[in-house]
Structures are given as structure tokens and as C-alpha cells.
Design goal:
The protein contains 3 helices and no strands. The chain is mainly α and about 80 residues long.
């Protein structure tokens, strides 16, 4: 969950508006996708950790994305409130 939230946080804080309002550069997007795939593989295959079912990992990824989207909306409201 830490890796997923870390990846999504990068996209949220790089933009003053909504995190999906501008397209990221290919390098950032590619490295994020590779990192997420790598963590999913490590988690599900049990490399150096106890294996976690793929369904649980996907659920954690989805929940993390939802929370990030909610916090991105809160960020936008906060920025508008203080005129940033």
C-alpha cells in the first residue's frame, strides 16, 4: 500500500489543479507503471515477503487510488479557499 500511495501522491502534488488535468511525461508514467507491476509481482509471488492473493493486491491498489482521488478533490477545495 505504501508503494501505491507513494506513486499516486507524486501525481497529486505535481499539479495544482486535479491530478489528471495534465499529462505526465513518458518517463514518469513508465517508471510508475513498472514500479506498480514490480510490486504486484513481488507481493503475489511472495519474493522476500509472505505472498498476498492477487485479488487483495488489486483491491488495495483500487482503494489507494480512490483515497488519492478524494484527497486530490480536498486539495483543490483547499487551494480555492486560500486562493492558491
Amino acid at each position: 500500500m505504501l508503494v501505491f500511495s507513494g506513486q499516486f501522491t507524486v501525481y497529486m502534488v505535481r499539479e495544482r489543479r486535479s491530478m489528471w488535468s495534465s499529462r505526465s511525461i513518458k518517463f514518469l508514467l513508465t517508471s510508475s507503471i513498472i514500479d506498480i507491476i514490480f510490486v504486484i509481482l513481488i507481493s503475489t509471488l511472495g519474493i522476500l515477503v509472505t505472498p498476498i492473493p492477487l485479488e487483495d493486491v488489486i483491491l488495495i491498489l483500487a482503494v489507494t487510488f480512490i483515497f488519492t482521488a478524494v484527497f486530490d478533490h480536498v486539495k483543490n477545495i483547499s487551494f480555492k479557499t486560500v486562493n492558491i
